[in-house]
Amino acid sequence: MLFLLFVLQNTTHVIHVLMMVPYTHSKLITGYGNATQEQKESRMQEIVESIQYTLNYKHCAFVYIFYQDALLIRYIYKQNLKYKEKLSFIPNMADTVSTLFEYANNYLVNKTVLVLNADTYPLEGFEKLNTKKLRDNKLVYLISR
Question: pLDDT value at position 7?
Fold first, then answer.
């Protein structure tokens, strides 16, 4: 599990969520090569559930999904998700976490940014973090597996 919260000069509790999301049915994603179609679909449903929980989070302004295979976009939009208007898809052929940081530093200045694994999501209480203290002390809040 990876929760990484960094604050780029923000004092509100509106959170912009960045996540790298694999499309397990894709031939571009090598990590699921030996999985059955049922296993791949089960994994995708876990990811979709996490995306929905994230979209439901009352402090979530946007969810930026970084992807390798454009088929993921169609797959996500076929799901019965609420708050789809919060979704934004960013191509990420490099498939590295540094891409998320570069994006945040270029486009989300003055925002509170949360980096999540595709199968994790924020819960109530997360907004109680003192983002001003994090920013003023140049700290990053990290929870990892």
Answer: 46
